Amino acid sequence: MRPDDPFDDAVTARAVIAADGTLARWSEGARLLLGHRAEEVVGRPAAELLADSTGPFPLPADRWSGTLVLRHRDGGTVSVWVLAHHRQPGGDGPGEWLAVTPLEATDHDLPDDPLVRKAVFQSPCATMVFDQGLRLRGVNDAMARLLGLPADHLRGLRPTDIGGRPQHSELERQLRHVLRTGRPHDMQTHMKARAENHAHAWLARLAPLTDRSGRVRGVCVTAHDFTEQFRARERLQLVNEASSRIGTTLDVTRTAQELADVCVPALADFVCVELLEPEAGEDETPGRLSPPVSLRRVAQRALTDDTPEAVTQVGEVVEYPADSPQADSLVAGHSIVASVPAGDLDSWLSADETQARRIERFGVHSMLSVPLQARGTTLGVAAFTRFSQPEAFTHDDVLLAEEVTARAAVCIDNARRYSRERETTLTLQRSLLPRTLPRTAALEAATRYLPAARSGVGGDWFDVIPLSGMRVAMVVGDVVGHGIQASATMGRLRTAVRTLADIDLAPDELLTHLDDLVLHLSEEAGGDSGPGEVGATCLYAVYDPVSRRCTLSRAGHPPPVVIPPGGPALHLELPSGPPLGLGGLPFESAEFELSDDSVLAFYTDGLVTSRGQDADRGEALLLEALSGASGPLDETCDRVLNSVLAPGGATDDVALLMARLRGLPSSQVATWDIPADPALVAPIRKQVLDQLAAWELVGASFTAELVVSELVTNAIRYGAPPIRLRLIHDAATLICEVSDTSHTAPHLRRAKTWDEGGRGLLLVAQLTQRWGTRHTTEGKTIWAELALADME
Fold this sequence. Notes:
It is built from 19 helices and 32 strands. By secondary structure, the chain is of the alpha+beta class.
């Protein structure tokens, strides 16, 4: 038998009663008290020891004390006082154990022991004294009231006999430490007075008691009640924790879950957060709500997985009728406390058997419902439930719950506003970006756009723009900032780029005009107070499939990456122009000859800076992901995003445009040098007809002959030599181009009835799909496109 075993005691009568009411153990003290040996009573019903039929066996509660009349072995009776405890689940021992003290062996005076009298009588606080064997030698009236037991019935008990709780086991361990070291020790503990319904916080002082020789003979325990200070500190700690843990993200569900996590178990055993459905109106006030109220559960937290609210899962919609705490608090606009024993929920539970069974099963005794309100708007309700904590919700608990919930409501409202704004901005952003890319013979393209995971939607954009002469423009840009304003600015810049591209401006000239536009936008955004903060970067490229040359210019934007067929990825070295919006600084272009099946990758800086690292590391990851990009471009785009972006998503917007270039075979291009003689137009028309026959485009001969005749005649008459005619065709289009060195552009006009000229270009506009003028450094080119499908 262990030295600290409570049955190793020849003074105190102890017994263990199994769950079925039979005696499982019998101490030597019990034999001395009642005369029965252990082998005579162990295994027999404990009720046989009673002198009458009324008794507590099996014991009805976790803790019981009182007087009983027991049978002595010789046939007499013994009046005793009994202190009984239930064993904790999973503890050692078969059932309950009892400490029994003969009533006639005690009196109300403390024993005549100087050790005890010195410690107990001189202390105004709750005090008790233990001897070297850790038996209780005496208590004063304050400690007896605290323990809720008669003072004369406590002597001889051990710390675990008094409560049997974990804190009393800790008390016994600290008592042994003081006896061993002779040094005092302070400890905090919680004890529940039997006359009260809630636990007290006590600061206990364990001081050694010594005799005249200095030998430690016992320990004096003095307890100071600091419950109010302790609870105030707990409330302050919970408020501080709520301010730091709630609202860490702009996500409604995450914020609601943070509220539930903070309050369990500090304030309640179960917390659920439920929000009003959108159809109830986002601007509803409490006065406008009326039961039944539909709420969607967005978060919940309980002490264990087997929660009292397991009947409702996160994401489900619950309809609360009148007389339910949730509906009543929303309608009233303030917190509602409901007590199950008081019958506050009888009306609701009588109509909802599922809730009634749940509350009965888990022993729910108190509920607190607090409406979530922020900026005059009711968002939903937070419900707090207690079933493990024995105390009901107090007024201080309500104030604490309201303060924490108010903080969470503001965070939830911020998250909802942010979510709405983000959704609006994302919708605007996607509506301003091209839904599909145009099909051209010059290239195959694939794109990806990813909004920022945390900072919101920005102003990144991309575009592919068909130009005259089978050429195609590629553009990627990034507007500074995030939100609706950045998306709107992006839409204006993208429209401007398409407009400037339609007049066939060179890349550096286009960026110059775009820079002026950004300056005007900054002035408009600033108003009277000064210029605004509108800025952007842009990369613009034009690829000519006939010459297989690509001209590029950039304004503060990362350079593109080129992947030659079978070669490694590398950056194109371009002049670094200033960002758009600075004004007054020039832009430069660079021209490269690229082989067929080369891949160009254009991107915004959000791709290479997503991991929170420098751009050089991101650029290295990008080149590694792009090397050997010979497969489908869509797969390459996905591989790039997965390889370069961090697992948590991009920290800034990401726009990625990839294009595989395709040169036009020389067999689809025909060029003639035209003498500046109107008499030689007829032979030129004959050569054009022969070429169309060779291309098997006889159906387009008549229209093409008229267009070529008009454009060549105008170039001879109004242009300057040398003059050149070029025909380009693919499967869908025939293009006629006439170039000369004059910079004078023709204008479309309507001729009057008797005018001899002015009808040529009008005829060309009616016969062709589209036409226009392209200025170059050498002069100009007049071009016209014929849709072959319309001429079959």
